């Protein structure tokens, strides 16, 4: 694809053998991968259209090793790309030709489970679902549930501030992480937060969450665990139009009901999912809501009745309540398999991730129909309807000349539409390389410079994950924060941008 | 009190007349207050033991005026202390002798109420309760409720990340602010967040929330508004010991119940409050829990029964459920008046604000009893029990030689105890000047330097609220982020630290 990455440093490329040796001294055994056939698996992440072989792959096992690798790369001016499980949908873990790929998958231990304080301390390579597996014997779980939860790592969740279908009620990663340990590019080990409520000082924990690997490398995560609700039931509600479904969503929220999850799929997504997993979805509707209510049984019964009443008021065609936990899981299985299901009906698809103020949903859906005609491509829609997070899946065929480019343009137009109605470029997938060049659609030059001043506070040489998030990185000294007088500032090496 | 503030700049003090004239040109009319008798009211905030007259007071009315004042102060190297309603309990708005006090009280308009998207856009001088007053005709309210909510401003709430008795269920200010506009010390106007879910880029909104006026001046706030719950009932539960009450709190949370509020008071606080407002509190117990359940009536009835059952299991002496909204308000009136109530039984009191992991409550209560003996001073305890946030009120008499110093030492010992059990120095009152010199008890030198690198990214001259939060501010160039080569960095004026 046509994303421009920073020009690789000839100096770094020329020193590859020495760099590999130095890294092997820091991480002995099988912790350094430098053979091309073994590095191939790390060539891309979940955004598979982008591929790049790294300079070398390092898989450290201890915090000391991480700090030593970063200190070495800082001293030698070698870029570093951190990677968890590599499920990023925005290319956040895309390697650099002249960069060390720092893979945290060997940090896979659960360090402490503290049921009294309702938290768990885990290493960043533990999978999202792995946390729930570690605490479910006592009736607890970890709430944010990306569709990739069986594979994605909690470290990657922190980097991307990942969400899931239950984030409407229980929040994104940022709302469920209590503390982290991370290592700066200079090799300092910093601990933020812990098992307590708010803390003094700037909210660096919040800043690190969603920073996409540009500020530091997370080596430990303390997460909140929740007791599983006494009861959870889901209801499938079919509507003759997306507009009616959208209005029902607004009415449910307006009545003060916060469902555990409230998802919406349009006809193409419904059919693709039903054909794939046979979840029991109705085929004769234009829009489907999956609404889950959880809590004490008395509350769930009361809220289910309210949701059904509101849905009928808004003209629903059908409503089916799950009668068992198995049926509830089946309802969700269709939604969680929507992406691969769409993969079965189209040679390729491109998943977008815009967020809009909830009430703009009808306007954006209508706009998307127009764009579909304009670009000559179909789109299947899957929404986190309750919180306004859209996941349009653009269907295309990479083997047909020009279709990939059309899909990219279509995606960009959708995101511009999201911004135009007061929304933003991403809800949970991150900017990465995918949305990097759209950042000026959203932010003014002052806004972007202010973000980068924070980047400079952590990594003034732009060595951590360069080429991601920011379309242009200013030299830190250019950002107006240095007051140089009767002297001069010069850099030993020119920075990469 | 004995807090060391930065040495005032003789250059600034000597230019006072010129500075006042320049400010009057920017903010005409009655927007500049420079007469000593008129400035007296701004001499301290809620931490009344600390007093300092400012250089001059400015009350701008427009964002352009705020930007112009900040640009002027930046160019002239004049410190600026932002102030909302001045209810800070940590001295966050304490003036500086050589500093402009920038008061936002004229920013008092509600700009937009958007019920569909459940948010309101307000100016920072609007009071916390003023937001609820503006939306309650449609059944909505703003959730975080500091005891000072009738007076404190939403801008100040953002600066301190304020909480209240309902923060257990509904979160602190950080969880309820969707967007802000703020002005940097250089006069740039930056907008963060808005009416949508998550956004791309670093979480500068989270960073600004709780930054205590050291990073910028907030000029607009977008907050989430919630629909008032269908039903809310409170129950007063008396216990023969604080340990039993603490165990009941843990058991309630462990059962998956998140009450709207769960507060605890000890015997001295109960008696002081009951004598003051006649809330109907039992006098014959050692600890009192006030637990509020809210939601649909069916849920509230179910949860009330569960809370009563758990309380009896843990040996409660009495339980009284509110039978009307008036009675519920009375139950809370005692708690919300606890600080002034304690003021009636002691010439002076000193309110601390530590936070601990919930399960350490018995250990900390026992430790506080020992400290009370050691320092020869009584203490009354009011807790946000559900989230581990303690507010010990140390009773002393400022007219007795040495008692103020003993109270300060007692307070410091309590905070050290909080940190020792894995807690932190503040839950919601901020660091300000009060807890500034205790920061090294909590943070390593690396931690503090990393915080200050962020400060430098926003305000490299340390002009915004200097002397607050950090015991020592390093010069930005000392923090190791500048790589100077064949040249020299020098500052036109030496920074203040």
Automatic annotation (TrEMBL), chains A, B:
Q: Cofactor(s) for this protein?
A: FAD
- Stored Pfam families: FAD-oxidase_C, FAD_binding_4
Please give the PROSITE patterns that the UniProt record associates with this protein.
FAD_PCMH
Q: Please give the start and end residues of each transmembrane region.
A: none
Q: Which domain of life is it from?
A: Bacteria
Molecular function (Gene Ontology), one example? oxidoreductase activity
> Which Gene3D superfamilies does the entry link to?
3.30.465.10, 3.30.70.2740, Vanillyl-alcohol Oxidase, Chain A, domain 4 (1.10.45.10)
Q: Where is the FAD-binding PCMH-type domain?
A: 50-228
Q: List the keywords (alphabetical).
A: FAD, Flavoprotein, Oxidoreductase
Q: What is this protein called?
A: Lactate dehydrogenase
Source organism per UniProt? Aureimonas glaciei
């Amino acid at each position: 694809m046509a994303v421009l990455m920073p020009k690789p440093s000839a100096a770094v490329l020329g020193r590859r053998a020495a760099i590999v040796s130095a890294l092997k001294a820091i991480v002995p055994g099988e912790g350094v991968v430098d053979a091309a056939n073994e590095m191939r698996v790390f060539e891309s992440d979940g955004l598979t259209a982008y591929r790049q072989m790294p300079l070398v792959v390092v898989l450290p096992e201890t915090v000391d090793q991480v700090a030593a690798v970063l200190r070495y790369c800082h001293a030698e001016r070698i870029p570093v790309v951190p990677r968890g499980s590599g499920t990023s949908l925005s290319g956040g873990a895309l390697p650099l030709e002249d960069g060390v790929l720092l893979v945290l998958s060997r940090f896979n231990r659960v360090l402490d489970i503290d049921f009294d304080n309702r938290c768990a301390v885990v290493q960043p390579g533990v999978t999202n679902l792995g946390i729930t597996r570690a605490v479910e014997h006592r009736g607890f779980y970890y709430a944010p549930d990306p569709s990739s939860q069986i594979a994605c790592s909690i470290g990657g969740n922190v980097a991307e501030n990942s969400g899931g279908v239950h984030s409407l009620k229980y929040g994104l990663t940022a709302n469920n992480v209590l503390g982290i340990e991370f290592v700066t590019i200079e090799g300092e080990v910093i601990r933020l937060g812990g098992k307590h409520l708010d803390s003094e000082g700037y909210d660096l924990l919040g800043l690190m969450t969603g920073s996409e690997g540009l500020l530091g490398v997370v080596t430990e995560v303390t997460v909140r665990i929740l007791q599983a609700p006494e009861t959870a039931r889901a209801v499938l509600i079919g509507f003759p139009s997306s507009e009616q479904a959208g209005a029902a969503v607004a009415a449910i929220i307006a009545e003060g009901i916060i469902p555990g999850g409230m998802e919406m799929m349009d006809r193409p997504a419904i059919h693709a999912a039903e054909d794939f997993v046979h979840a029991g979805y109705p085929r004769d509707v234009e829009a489907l809501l999956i609404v889950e209510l959880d809590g004490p049984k008395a509350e769930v019964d009361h809220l289910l009745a309210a949701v059904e009443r509101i849905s009928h008021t808004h003209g629903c065609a059908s409503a089916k309540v799950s009668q068992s936990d198995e049926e509830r899981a089946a309802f969700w299985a269709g939604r969680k398999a929507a992406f691969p299901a769409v993969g079965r009906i189209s040679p390729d698809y491109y998943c977008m991730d815009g967020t809009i103020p909830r009430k703009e949903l009808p306007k954006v859906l209508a706009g998307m129909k127009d764009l579909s005609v304009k670009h000559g491509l179909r789109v299947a829609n899957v929404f986190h309807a309750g919180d306004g997070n859209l996941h349009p899946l653009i269907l295309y065929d990479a083997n047909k000349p020009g279709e990939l480019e059309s899909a990219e343009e279509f995606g960009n137009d959708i995101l511009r539409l999201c911004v135009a109605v007061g929304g933003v470029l991403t809800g949970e997938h991150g900017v990465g390389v995918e949305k990097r060049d759209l950042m000026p659609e959203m932010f003014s030059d002052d806004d972007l410079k202010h973000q980068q001043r924070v980047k400079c506070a952590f990594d003034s040489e732009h060595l951590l994950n360069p080429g991601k998030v920011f379309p242009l990185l200013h030299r830190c000294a250019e950002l107006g924060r240095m007051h140089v007088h009767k002297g001069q500032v010069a850099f030993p090496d020119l920075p990469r941008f």
